[in-house]
Amino acid sequence: MIEFFNEDLEFSxxxxxxxxxxxxxxxxxxxxxxxELNFYFCSDDYLLNINRSELQHDFYTxxxxxxxxxxxxxxxxxxxxxxxVLENEKMFSDGKYPEILRIIxxxxxHLLGFKDKQDHEKxxxxxxxxxxxDFYFKM
Length: 139
Fold this sequence. Notes:
The protein is of the alpha/beta class. The protein has helices spanning 16-29, 44-55, 82-91, 99-111, 119-138; strands at 2-6, 33-42, 63-67, 73-81. It has a 4-stranded mixed beta sheet, with helices on both faces. The two termini are 20 Å apart.
C-alpha cells in the first residue's frame, strides 16, 4: 500500500496512480516486496524540524526516509519538502525529469539499500534514479 499525505501545505501529485504503479515496479525489480509506504509532502520548516528532532541535523534537506523494512519487505515513511523540490528544480534540474519524481524515487532507493554519503554511492544512486525515471516515462 502506498499513500500520499500533505502535512503543512497543499500539494497535488500529478498521476498518483501511475506513480504508485511505478514505485511497485521498481521495488519488484530489486527483488523486494512493498508492504507499506507513506509519503508526506511538507514545507522546508516542517522537514527542518524533523531533521533536528530525529536526526540531530540543523539544515534544510529535500527528503528524509525512515526505514522500517523487515528483510525483503518494504515499510517506510518518506518526508519530502516541496520547497526544496522547487528550489532544486530551478538550480539543478536538466529539464529531462520532474524533480518531484527524482526525489520520490530517491527515497524509495534508500529503502532498497542504496546510500549516498560517499561519492561512489552518490554516483550509483544517481544511476539508479535515472534508470527508474526512464522506466517511468516508458510506462
